[in-house]
Recover the amino acids of this structure.
DNA sequence: TCGATAGTTCAAGATAGCCGAACTATTAAA
DNA sequence: TTTAATAGTTCGGCTATCTTGAACTATCGA
C-alpha cells in the first residue's frame, strides 16, 4: 500500500516547480488535471503508449513539486491538482504556463 | 572565433524555455541580465566560484532557449536579455518567474 | 480462490549535466 | 613583434538523472 508524501508548498523551491513543468508529457498531464478535477494515473496519462513505470515516475515528480495530490481509492490512485496551494506559493505561474502551452 | 547561433523564438518550445529557467544558477543569471541590460559572461555569473566551462554551458543553454543574445566585443562576449522577443513568444512567463524568484 | 486490474518499485541501460584541461582569440605590455 | 594576460569556448570523462521492462503489491470481481 503506497503511502504518498505530499510536501508543504513552502518547502517547494521554484526550480523544482519549473523542472516539473519543463517536460511535454508532464505538462500535458497537468493540463488534463487542470481541466478534469480528479483523474486516475492512467486517466492522467499524456498518451496511450507511455509505459506504466514512466507514468508513475512522472506523477511522483509532480507530487514532489507540490503540483498534485494523490490518494488511494480502491485499486486506483486518484490525482488532483493542488491548484490553490500551488497558486498561493507561486502566484500566476501555473496560469501563465498553461496559457502558453502548445495546443 | 565563436559565432553564436540565436534561434527564432517561434522555434523555441515551451519545455526548453522552462528547462532553461529551472535552475537556480541560470535563474540568477537571467535576473541579473534583467536588471543590468548588458553583461559579460563573468559579469553575468551567479557566483564567483562557478567554473568557467559550466558558466559557458549555462549561457549556451540560455541562448538556445531564446533568453539571451550574445555578441562579441573585443575579447569579451556581451550578453543581453532578449526580453521583447521572449515576451512576445511566452507572454507573462518571464515576469512571473522573476517575480516568484527567491530573494 | 483465481484472475484481472492499477499502480509501485527495482535495476540496468541510455541520456544529460558538470567541470578540469586544453585551446582560440583578443588586448596590453615590453 | 614577441610575450603574457584575459575572456571565453570546446572536449572528454565522470557522475547523476531519466526511461523502461520486469517483478511485486494490493484490490476487486467472478
Amino acid at each position: 500500500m503506497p503511502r504518498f508524501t505530499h510536501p508543504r508548498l513552502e518547502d517547494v523551491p521554484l526550480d523544482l516547480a519549473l523542472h516539473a513543468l519543463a517536460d511535454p508529457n508532464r505538462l500535458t498531464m497537468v493540463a488534463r488535471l487542470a481541466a478534469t478535477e480528479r483523474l486516475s494515473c492512467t486517466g492522467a496519462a499524456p498518451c496511450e503508449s507511455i509505459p506504466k513505470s514512466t507514468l508513475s515516475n512522472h506523477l511522483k515528480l509532480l507530487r514532489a513539486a507540490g503540483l498534485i495530490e494523490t490518494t488511494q481509492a480502491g485499486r486506483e490512485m486518484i490525482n488532483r491538482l493542488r491548484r490553490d496551494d500551488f497558486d498561493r506559493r507561486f502566484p500566476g505561474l501555473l496560469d501563465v504556463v498553461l496559457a502558453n502551452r502548445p495546443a
About this structure: The longest strand of chain A covers residues 68-73. Helices of chain A lie at 14-21, 24-36, 41-44, 52-64, 83-89, 93-99. Chain A has one domain: 11-98.
